[in-house]
């Protein structure tokens, strides 16, 4: 049976994404542990439109993924990753965005606040749509 993490990133897809993520992620005193699990949790959450606290237990503590997402949003990591993926010489094929998963709060008419993660959330949704499209195809 396929695990929840593998449903987000197959091994082939992760082999493509890991070097891209390592290239754009900030380096600090302590590297994030379980990077694949945490990135899978972030992508899963944005693919499904779930709340952070609704992450399946297989992805680890919800607050670790939420904290990494917010920290990387403020540092522009998601934007850099999107630019890397967008500029890649890869045939993405057709990508389908289902409008039912793009939700807005009923009070979402206001301007973005300082340090807002709305733009980063949209970028992560787009990145999540490309996960398997970037994986090498087996013949």
UniProtKB/TrEMBL annotation:
Domain Insertion element IS402-like: 10-82
Superkingdom as given in the UniProt entry: Bacteria
PANTHER family, alphabetized: BLL5188 PROTEIN (PTHR46637:SF1), TIS1421-TRANSPOSASE PROTEIN A (PTHR46637)
The protein's name: Insertion element IS402-like domain-containing protein
């Amino acid at each position: 049976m396929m695990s929840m993490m593998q449903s987000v990133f197959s091994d082939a897809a992760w082999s493509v994404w890991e070097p891209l993520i390592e290239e754009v992620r900030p380096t600090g005193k302590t590297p994030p542990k379980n990077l694949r699990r945490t990135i899978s949790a972030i992508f899963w959450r944005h693919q499904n439109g779930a709340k952070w606290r609704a992450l399946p237990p297989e992805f680890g503590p919800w607050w670790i993924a939420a904290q990494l997402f917010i920290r990387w949003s403020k540092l522009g990591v998601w934007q850099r990753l999107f630019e890397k993926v967008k500029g890649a010489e890869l045939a993405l094929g057709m990508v389908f965005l289902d409008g039912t998963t793009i939700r807005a709060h009923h009070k979402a008419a206001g301007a973005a606040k300082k340090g807002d993660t709305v733009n980063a959330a949209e970028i992560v949704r787009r990145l999540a749509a490309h996960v398997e499209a970037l994986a090498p195809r087996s013949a």
